[in-house]
Write a structure and sequence with these properties.
The protein has 415 residues and is an alpha/beta fold. It has 16 helices and 15 strands. It has a 7-stranded mixed β-sheet, sandwiched between helices. The protein has a 4-stranded antiparallel β-sheet with strand order 2-3-1-4, with helices on one face. α13 links the parallel β13 and β14. It is elongated and about 95 Å long.
């Protein structure tokens, strides 16, 4: 080792590995302090009971490199750790580019899938600074801290890769925007809830099959949303308004939806619902969840019967994006601090306008265009894309007295 510690001012890279014990980092640093070393950089990582401590060191003025060499060797021997060290010839930082976080998420996350993702990151010219495990259950999630990346290019590359690997990959910028207050805007039908409200109403009118076909065509982008909505609402003509109240009680939250909402509220986030459905159902749902901002269509009623028409301008694709912009302005937040979550073609503009657009179990037309996709059935997986680990989610849930979705659960219906 002495041949690499030849210059008194040369930065030294030292890595200690071995069994973890309390105080091991302090013991290493005390030994280096006695040798007159200044710490330029320090990382510790713990995997089960195996610790890795990596340091960049320089001898303090008046200290000698041999003293540092002996201190490193003595610390390793005293603590029964393995030491590797070298002199840093030149620091090679990341290439010009963004600092981003890459989150990889799947029901089961294989080593091969992670290998291909990290391979693509390296191939882009970016550098992996840290890998952090976020969750094992009910989904597996890993966060990769990347520097020197092109955000847009890396998103495009990894989105293409993810489709073939059967995993979800989100690339989001680092910085204060990630940690400060944000606006999260959710679509309702087949996103926040498992159902399509218009289809529940159609069931009461005896028109289920007809309306379901129209909904499917609209969500896949095969039919203009406003036209499809008019056709579907026309099928409800003559239905008594009591059926709307019945449907309010029939809707089922998506698994993890209440966890997502409650945790985000506790963290100080603002939430909004933007729906091509009906405010008569979305409004009570929002109120029950403590969500203040709502934009949805309104059903026209005459003599306690639905007329088969809506009131005002239809809330469709463009209107959803405009609602996101308006809510952000009302909250004094830039679009970079917004998150939009949806599943269908009428969410395309909203997801494109948001700082982070997430396609949740989405139709192919939205999945192909979205920055980020989630394919697992738990809506609270969004929390991992925002940088929260399962342990942190559980901590916040305990403070907020939130009942988490049981691991492996398939329902979270109460609201």
């Amino acid at each position: 080792m002495s041949d690499v510690l030849t210059a008194a001012t040369a930065p030294v890279l030292a890595t200690f590995t071995g069994s973890y014990r309390p105080g091991v980092v302090a013991a290493v640093l005390d030994a280096l302090e006695a040798a007159g070393a200044d710490v330029v950089d320090l990382r510790q990582m713990l995997v089960r009971d195996h610790v890795t401590i990596s340091l960049a060191l320089t001898p303090r003025a008046g200290s000698d490199a041999p003293d540092l060499e002996r201190a490193l060797a003595a610390a390793a021997a005293d603590l029964d750790l393995t030491l590797t060290s070298s002199r840093e010839e030149a620091h090679t930082g990341p290439s010009d580019g963004d600092h981003v976080y890459v989150c990889v998420l799947a029901a089961q996350l294989s080593a091969g899938a992670l290998a291909r993702v990290t391979e693509d990151i390296a191939g882009s010219g970016a550098r992996i600074d840290r890998v952090r495990h976020l969750s094992r259950e009910p989904v597996a999630a890993v966060e990769i801290d990347v520097s020197g990346a092109s955000l847009d290019d890396l998103r495009a590359t990894l989105a293409s890769r993810a489709a073939g690997l059967g995993v979800d990959v989100a690339v989001s910028p680092a910085g204060l925007a990630r940690h400060g207050r944000r606006l999260v805007v959710l679509d309702v039908d087949s996103t926040l809830i498992q159902d399509e409200v218009v289809e529940l109403l159609a069931a009461h009118a005896g028109r289920s099959d007809e309306v379901s076909a129209l909904t499917e065509a609209a969500m896949h982008g095969h039919v203009d949303f406003a036209t499809s909505l008019r056709q579907r609402v026309a099928a409800l003509a003559g239905l008594h308004v009591d059926a709307v109240a019945d449907v309010v009680g029939e809707v089922r939250l998506t698994p993890g939806a209440k966890t997502l909402v409650d945790v985000l509220h506790h963290l100080g986030y603002t939430l909004a619902l933007v729906s091509g459905g009906f405010v008569e159902v979305v409004g009570p749902l929002a109120a029950s969840l403590g969500i203040d901002h709502v934009r949805a269509n309104a059903l026209e009623v005459s003599s306690n019967l639905l007329t088969g028409r809506t009131l005002g301008k239809v809330v469709g694709r463009a209107e959803k994006a405009e609602a996101l912009r308006q809510f952000a302005a009302d909250e004094g937040l830039p679009l970079s601090r917004t998150v939009a979550i949806g599943d269908g073609a009428n969410d395309l503009d909203m997801l494109a306008a948001a700082g982070l657009g997430i396609a949740f179990n989405a139709k192919p037309v939205l999945r192909a265009a979205a920055q980020t996709t989630i394919s697992v059935p738990f809506l609270d997986s969004v929390l991992h894309l925002l940088g929260l680990s399962r342990a942190e989610i559980e901590e916040v849930a305990a403070m907020a007295e939130v009942d988490l979705v049981p691991l492996g659960a398939v329902a979270d219906d109460a609201w």
